[in-house]
Design a protein that fits this description.
heterotrimer; A mainly alpha; B alpha/beta; C mainly alpha; B: alpha/beta; 14 helices; 13 strands; C: mainly alpha; MetI-like fold; flat
C-alpha cells in the first residue's frame, strides 16, 4: 500500500530504467530463499534414507522390556545409548524417528503425486473446455470440499479398515480438489491470452494447445501447489495415524509414533513431543518453501 | 455554507502560498527531483490551472500539499503555507491538520475514489464527523442535502441513499466533489478530475467549479493536461515541466503569447488552437530528473536549445513583485501569436 | 433489482443442493463400493447364514441402485438409520453429541476471528515492519503444527505441569478453554493470512487514498472503509475452511476426550459401525453446504454491488 498509485505512475513515467534492476535484485533474493529452504529439507530426506542403512542406530523394532520409557540423554536417567530415550516397549526413539521419517516423507511425496496429477488434469479440462464440463467439475470440487478428509477417511475405514493403500486413496480423494480449483482459474485466464487465441485461430488442436502451451505456463503454479500439498499430505497422514486410522504397527511413521506416545504422555512426554516436533519442522519448512516459490514465480500473489 | 472569505478583503493573504518547493524521491541508487523550485500564490476566489504532461510533477504537487506522499518521497526545501500558517517545510509536516478540513481534494476517477460498499450518506457523514463534529444529526443531514443541491443534484435524498455503483458517472463525480467541499475548505485541489468524463459532463463539472469559486470564494487548483479546459476555467496558468514551473502567468497572456517554447509546443499540439497551422506534437517524452541534472529540462526536446541551455541551471525570468514569468534563456517573442478572436471561437466550438 | 436478487439466491440454493447431492452420493459410494460392509463387520469366520441374515436386515441384498434410492429418500426425510453398535437410531446418537461439538466449533471459530482478523489487519497496515513479520510467523506456524500435537503439548503444559486447566472431558467453561484454543489455531492462521492479503489489496485502492485526502483518521479508514471491503474474501475462505475445521475437530475431540460427534465417529469406526459413520459424514457435509450457502447469501448483504 505504500506505493500510492498516481505517484507511482508518475514515477514510472519518469523512471523507466529503475524498475527492472530493483525487480531483478528481489528475484535473486527470493531464489536464494528457495535454495536456503530446500537445503534443510534435502538434509532431512538424506538422513532418513541413508542413516538406517549405515547400521549406526539400534533396530527400531527391537524391544528391551527392561529399558522401557528411558528419558532422553539430557534428563536424569538418560544416556547416549538411547539419545532421545525409549518408548513403552524399550525401543530406541531416535532410531524409530529416523525410520518413521521414511514412511512419512514417502507418503508426503506419493500423496502429492496422486493429488496433483488428477487435480491438474481436471483443472485444465474444466478451465479450457468451459461450458457444461466446467459446471460439472465445479460442482464436484465443491462437493469434495464439503467432505473433510477425516470424514472421507472415516467413511472408507469404517468399511475397509485402515491400511497404507486406504491412506493413499484418502489423500488422492481429498487433495485433487483444491489443486483443480486453482489450475482451473489459471487456465481460464490463460485461455484468453493473445498467444492462445492465436493458436486457436490457427486451428491447433485443443489437446495440443493445453499440453504444449497452457500447461508449461502453469509450471510455477503447479510447483507451488505440489510443494504445499507435501505439507498437507504429511499432516493428513499424521492426523489419521494419530486417530488410529492410518499407519498401523509394526509400520512406523511420525504420526504413529506420536499416537503411541499419547498413552504414556504423563510418564514419557518426549515420545510425542519429539515426533510432533519432527512433523512441525518439516511441514514448516515445506510451507516456507511453498511461500518462497510463490513469490519467486509470482511476486504479486505473495500473501505473507 | 457561508462565504466567509470575500475575495477583496482576503487578497492580501493568499489562501495557499508555495515558496521554492522541492520534493525528492529517494530510490535505491538515485535521488529524483519530482518538484523543484516551485513558487505559487493562490488567493481566495482565484483559479489556477496547473498544466503539463504526465511526469511533469503535477500529481506529486497535489499529493505533497495534502501529505499523501510515498515513504521515500520527502520535501527537501521550500515551504507551503495555508492561510498564513506554515504546514510544510523540510522536516515539518502539518498537513494532517489541513487535509480534508482546509484543503479538499477531488481525484481523477470518481468511480474509484468512492468506497463501493458504503452509501453516499455514510461517506458524507464521515467527513462531517471528522471536520464538523459540533453539528447535530439534523444539521448534518441538512448540510448533506445542501451540498448535493449545490452540486446540481436534484434529488439529494435518493443519491444519499444510493451506493456509488447505482449512480451515473457524472453523478459520481459530483458526489466526489461534494465530499471534497462539504467540510467547507478554503482550498480545493482538483487532480485531473474531468479526464475520465465525456465532453458534456466535463463542461457541467467545469461550470460547477466556476460556481463554487464564485459563490464561496474558495481557491481552486485545477490540475489538468487539457490546455483548452484550463483556458476555459482558470484565471492563471502554471505550465509545469520536469518538476519545475516552465511558465506562469494570466491565462490569456500564457495562451496568446507564450514565452516558454514548451508552452508554445503544448499549444501547437491542441487541434482547435492550431487550426491554421499543422498540428504538431512535441517529440520525445519527459526527462528523468535526478539531483545531478543540470541545465534546462526541456533542452532535449526544444527546437531553440543550444549549448548554454544544457550547461547551467536556467534562471527564472519574471517581473518584480509578481510570481509570473518563465524559465527560459531563449524565450519566444512577447508579441501575441494567434488572433484572440480565433482562439476564443476555437475554444467555444470545442466545449 | 429484487428479481435479480431472487434469481441470485435461487441459483446459489440450486448449486448448494447439487453439491449436497454429490456429497451424499460420495458418502454412499464410499460406504458401499469399497467392499461388503457385512463381511467386514462379521469377519472371515462368519457363517453364510449369519452374513445373509445381516445383509437382508440392512437391505444390502437389494440391487445397489435400489439401495441408493432408499438411502437418499431416508436421508431427505432425516432418517439416518440405526447404529449397528449402540442399537439406537443414529439421529438420536448424533443429536445427543451435537451440542458438545457445536460448542467447541463455535468457540474455536470465534477465537480465530477475534484474533485472526486484527492480526492480519495489523500486518497489512504495518506492512514490512516487525509486526508484519511476527504476524506472518504466527500464521505460518499455525499452518504447520499438527493440531492434535498442539493439543497434547497444551495438556502437558497447562494440565500436567502447571495444573491450571482441566485436560479434557466436557464440563464447565474451563474445560472448553484448551480444546477451543487448540482447534482455533489453524483457522486463525488462515484468517490472519487472508485478512492481510485482502487488506493490503484494499488499502492500495484509490478510494482509500481519497478517504485519507478527506482528512479521515487511519483508524476510521481501516475500520470502516477497508475492513468491510476486505471482509468479503475472508468470509468466503473461512466458510470453505469449515471442512478443515471439522477434520481438526475430530482430532481435538479425541485428544481431549471431548464427547462430541468426532469421538462418536471414531467409536463408530472402531466397531465397524458403518451406518453411524455414514450418518456423521452426512451431518458434516450438510453443515458445510448450509454454512457456505449462508455465506454466499451474506455476501449480498455486505457487498451492495451484487444487489
Amino acid at each position: 500500500m505504500s506505493a500510492t498509485e498516481s505517484t507511482a505512475t508518475e514515477l514510472a513515467a519518469v523512471t523507466p530504467a529503475i524498475a527492472p534492476s530493483a525487480a531483478t535484485a528481489r528475484r535473486i533474493r527470493r531464489s536464494r530463499a528457495v535454495l536456503w529452504l530446500s537445503l534443510p529439507l534435502a538434509f532431512v530426506a538424506l538422513v532418513v534414507i541413508v542413516v538406517p542403512l549405515l547400521g549406526v542406530l539400534p533396530d527400531p523394532h527391537r524391544q528391551h522390556l527392561d529399558q522401557t520409557l528411558l528419558p532422553p540423554f539430557f534428563l536424569d536417567g538418560g544416556s547416549m545409548s538411547h539419545p532421545l530415550g525409549t518408548d513403552k516397549l524399550g525401543r530406541d526413539l531416535l532410531s524409530r524417528l529416523v525410520t518413521g521419517g521414511r514412511l512419512t516423507l514417502l507418503i508426503g511425496l506419493v500423496g502429492t503425486v496422486v493429488a496433483i496429477v488428477p487435480g491438474t488434469l481436471i483443472g485444465l479440462l474444466a478451465g479450457y473446455k468451459r461450458g457444461w464440463v466446467d459446471t460439472v467439475v465445479s460442482r464436484f470440487i465443491e462437493a469434495q470440499l464439503a467432505l473433510p478428509f477425516v470424514l472421507i477417511a472415516l467413511a472408507i475405514i469404517a468399511n475397509r479398515g485402515s491400511s497404507l493403500g486406504v491412506l493413499i486413496v484418502v489423500l488422492a480423494l481429498t487433495g485433487w480438489a483444491p489443486c483443480a480449483r486453482v489450475v482451473r482459474a489459471e487456465t481460464m485466464a490463460l485461455r484468453e491470452r493473445q498467444f492462445v487465441l492465436g493458436l486457436r485461430a490457427a486451428g491447433a488442436s485443443s489437446a495440443r494447445i493445453v499440453l504444449r502451451h497452457v500447461l508449461p505456463n502453469l509450471t510455477g503454479v503447479i510447483v507451488v501447489l505440489a510443494t504445499l500439498q507435501v505439507g498437507t499430505a504429511i499432516l493428513v497422514e499424521s492426523a489419521l495415524s494419530f486417530l488410529n486410522l492410518g499407519i498401523q504397527p509394526p509400520d512406523i511413521s511420525w504420526g504413529q509414533i506420536l499416537a503411541s506416545g499419547r498413552e504414556v504422555l504423563t510418564q514419557a512426554w518426549w515420545i510425542s513431543t519429539f515426533a510432533g516436533l519432527a512433523i512441525t519442522v518439516v511441514v514448516l519448512l515445506v510451507n516456507l518453501l511453498g511461500d518462497a516459490l510463490l513469490s519467486h514465480y509470482d511476486p504479486k500473489k505473495r500473501k505473507f | 455554507m457561508t462565504a466567509t472569505a470575500a475575495p477583496q478583503t482576503a487578497a492580501a493573504e493568499p489562501a495557499l502560498r508555495i515558496d521554492d518547493l522541492r520534493v525528492e524521491a529517494r530510490l535505491a541508487d538515485d535521488t529524483l527531483l519530482l518538484v523543484d523550485g516551485l513558487d505559487l500564490d493562490l488567493r481566495p476566489g482565484e483559479i489556477v490551472g496547473v498544466v503539463g504532461e504526465s511526469g511533469s510533477g503535477k500529481t506529486t504537487l497535489v499529493r505533497t500539499l495534502i501529505g499523501l506522499l510515498d515513504k521515500n518521497v520527502t520535501v527537501t526545501a521550500g515551504a507551503v503555507a495555508v492561510g498564513g500558517e506554515q504546514v510544510l517545510a523540510p522536516g515539518v509536516d502539518r498537513t494532517e491538520a489541513v487535509r480534508g478540513a482546509r484543503i479538499g481534494t477531488v481525484f481523477q476517477d470518481a468511480s474509484r475514489s468512492l468506497n463501493p460498499v458504503l452509501k453516499v450518506r455514510s461517506q458524507l457523514r464521515e467527513v462531517l464527523k471528522a471536520h464538523k463534529p459540533q453539528l447535530s444529526k439534523a444539521e448534518a443531514a441538512e448540510k448533506m442535502r445542501t451540498v448535493l443541491r449545490r452540486m446540481q443534484i436534484d434529488d439529494p435524498e435518493r443519491v444519499l441513499g444510493s451506493y456509488p455503483h447505482q449512480l451515473s458517472g457524472g453523478q459520481r463525480q459530483r458526489v466526489a466533489i461534494a465530499l471534497a467541499v462539504v467540510s467547507e475548505p478554503q482550498i480545493v485541489l482538483a487532480d485531473e478530475c474531468t479526464t475520465a468524463l465525456d465532453v458534456t459532463t466535463q463542461a457541467e463539472v467545469v461550470a460547477l467549479f466556476r460556481d463554487l469559486v464564485a459563490e464561496l470564494g474558495v481557491a481552486l487548483v485545477f490540475v489538468t493536461h487539457d490546455l483548452l479546459l484550463a483556458a476555459d476555467l482558470c484565471d492563471r496558468i502554471v505550465v509545469m515541466y520536469g518538476g519545475q514551473a516552465a511558465e506562469v502567468g494570466p491565462t490569456r497572456r500564457v495562451l496568446l503569447a507564450p514565452r516558454h517554447p514548451y508552452s508554445a509546443g503544448l499549444l501547437a499540439a491542441v487541434p482547435s488552437w492550431s487550426a491554421d497551422g499543422p498540428i504538431r506534437g512535441i517529440d520525445g517524452s519527459a526527462p528523468r530528473v535526478t539531483t545531478a541534472f543540470s541545465g534546462c529540462r526541456f533542452a532535449g526536446r526544444c527546437p531553440r536549445a543550444d549549448d548554454d541551455c544544457r550547461s547551467a541551471p536556467i534562471p527564472w525570468s519574471g517581473a518584480a513583485g509578481t510570481r509570473d514569468g518563465y524559465r527560459c534563456i531563449h524565450p519566444l517573442a512577447a508579441a501575441p501569436a494567434p488572433a484572440p478572436a480565433q482562439a476564443a471561437s476555437g475554444s467555444a466550438a470545442d466545449r | 433489482m429484487s428479481s435479480s436478487l431472487a434469481s441470485f439466491g435461487a441459483r446459489k440454493i440450486g448449486a448448494a443442493l447439487v453439491t449436497l447431492l454429490l456429497a451424499l452420493t460420495a458418502a454412499f459410494a464410499l460406504g458401499h463400493l469399497s467392499g461388503d460392509p457385512v463381511y467386514n463387520i462379521l469377519g472371515p469366520l462368519a457363517q453364510r447364514e449369519q452374513i445373509d441374515a445381516m445383509r437382508a436386515d440392512l437391505g444390502l441384498d437389494k440391487p445397489i441402485a435400489e439401495q441408493y434410492v432408499t438411502y437418499l429418500g431416508d436421508t431427505v426425510r432425516g432418517e439416518l438409520g440405526d447404529s449397528l453398535q449402540y442399537f439406537r437410531s443414529n439421529s438420536e446418537l448424533i443429536s445427543s453429541r451435537l451440542p458438545q461439538s457445536l460448542q467447541l466449533l463455535v468457540a474455536a471459530i470465534v477465537l480465530a476471528i477475534l484474533i485472526g482478523v486484527p492480526l492480519g489487519t495489523l500486518a497489512a497496515v504495518k506492512e514490512g515492519t516487525w509486526w508484519d513479520r511476527a504476524a506472518s510467523t504466527v500464521a505460518l506456524l499455525g499452518q504447520s503444527v499438527p493440531v492434535f500435537w498442539l493439543g497434547l503439548m497444551l495438556i502437558l503444559i497447562f494440565a500436567v505441569q502447571l495444573r491450571l486447566l482441566p485436560s479434557g472431558q466436557s464440563g464447565g467453561l474451563d474445560h472448553l478453554i484448551l480444546p477451543a484454543i487448540t482447534l482455533s489455531l489453524l483457522p486463525l492462521a488462515h484468517i490472519a493470512r487472508l485478512t492481510r492479503a485482502s487488506m493490503a489489496e484494499v488499502l492500495a485502492e484509490p478510494y482509500i487514498d481519497a478517504a485519507r485526502a478527506r482528512g479521515l483518521s487511519t483508524r476510521r479508514i481501516v475500520g470502516l472503509h477497508a475492513l468491510r471491503n476486505a471482509a468479503l474474501p475472508v468470509l468466503t475462505v473461512t466458510a470453505l475452511q469449515t471442512g478443515v475445521l471439522l477434520s481438526g475437530a475430530v482430532a481435538v475431540e479425541y485428544v481431549y476426550s471431548w464427547p462430541g460427534l468426532g469421538t462418536l465417529a471414531l467409536e463408530a469406526v472402531q466397531f465397524r459401525d458403518y451406518t453411524l459413520a455414514q450418518a456423521v459424514v452426512i451431518v458434516g457435509a450438510v453443515a458445510f453446504v448450509v454454512l457456505n450457502l449462508l455465506v454466499d447469501l451474506l455476501y449480498v448483504v455486505v457487498d451492495p454491488r451484487l444487489r
